[in-house]
Amino acid sequence: MDSMKAGWMQNGWKCWAGALGTALWMAALPAAAEAPPLPPEVRQALQRARVPESALAVVVEEAGSGRPLLSAQARDSVNPASLAKLLTTYAALDRLGPAWRWRTPVWLDGPVRNGVLEGSLVIQGRGDPSLVLERVWLLLQRVRQLGVREIRGDIVLDRSAFALPPHVPGAFDGEPLRPYNVGPDALPLNYKSVVYGFVPDPANGRTRVTQEPRLDGAPATLEVPLSAGPCGDWRGALKATFSAEGPRFAGAYPAACGPLNWPVADPDPDTYNARLLTSMWRDMGGSVAGRVRDGAAPVGRAPDLEAVSPSLAEVVRDINKFSNNLMAQQLFLSMALADGAPATPERARQLIDAWLTDRLGAELAATVRLDNGAGLSRETRTSAAALARLLQQAWGSPVMSELMSSLPVAGLDGTMRRSRAGDGRAHLKTGSLRDTAGIAGYVLSDSGRRYVLVAILNHDNAQAARPALEALVRWTRGDGAAR
Fold this sequence. Notes:
By secondary structure, the protein is of the alpha+beta class. The chain has two domains: 2-99 and 312-477, DD-peptidase/beta-lactamase superfamily (Beta-lactamase); 102-309, D-tyrosyl-trna(Tyr) Deacylase, Chain: A (3-Layer(bba) Sandwich). Helix content is 32%, strand content 22%. The protein is built from 13 helices and 21 strands. Strands 2-1-21-20-19 form a five-stranded antiparallel beta sheet, sandwiched between helices. It is globular, with a radius of gyration of 25 Å.
């Protein structure tokens, strides 16, 4: 009873302190009429891009104290694009903990005699987004180490942990072969994608095409002719078509391009797992008498082995550094799965809504709507004020170091590696859609102060106005041009 009372008092104190902190922070925000004008260099960059100042929602304030430097359109409801991943990853770190891991259980559903499994191999997906090619190989290698060389039954995939609506890969932007459009799955092996490599061989006038991985049914070798002229639109020049049977190239590859890679989302994602596992198991010297099919895992029986993912902190780093949409959606659904199967998008949204209300208070939380956890959506909304408040909370939280280190470092890595504004002193998540450009994170200034910076552009010319975001980073580095 004492522990229950202590837990209630602790949680009550957190809620009261959180609400008070939110109220004080909101009171500290300057009124719209008193908001300082945008820095001149930011205004000029917007003018050059023909973007009105009203299209920029921005908050700059000192981390920890909340002392505001700049606020404009801070409470407007805007599309944050991939800045939504900040909400998903911080919520996951806060709720699950940085050391949390996904576990993918595997059963040998039958006895093993003389290298033969007299039954089926069962793999149950639990949402792990890190089951890339190397880790799938390790999982199958562990099956081999259990003495299995031949599977007399089937390879059964239990994908029931997620209950999802039908996914149309090209629905968002008409680009179904872009890897970022791959839909979530309880067992998303290797992102359900293939990387095609093009290696010119000028001596023979051909280009060798590599496939990683080579799926079952795909041609063993591929070549295309070399062509002269500039590299240009080399993908268009290949005149490629993709199907479950593999790619076909009716064109040629420009020799001037040199070696290049082309990542492609598999055109038949429903059969991708079967084609991958069949090919990998065969390449390892194994055989299967049956087929790879969906089915149910054994109930009430401990698995024979488990594939364990890297820590959540490591996965979050991959999500934010490289803005991985599929991994973010997997994490979004996995938070719901942690509360019980099956996970659905609606349950994940309800969970995030409750978490945001607890962290931000009802008024600011009402400005946020997460559609799929990744930001690849026209329905996702937030305000710059809500994102700034969340970054302030993260700054004082036990998972601050994990969240901050997951953000791209301006000028050094991830999606900010080409930036010239941060000089390694800005940790900023980026967001980008056709009509959205944004940055959000932390900036270390010349005076040694750390600032929270959130800036989101919603406009048809948003991409042309990215120099305005760079100017904001430089201005913040200079402590607001030293005020």
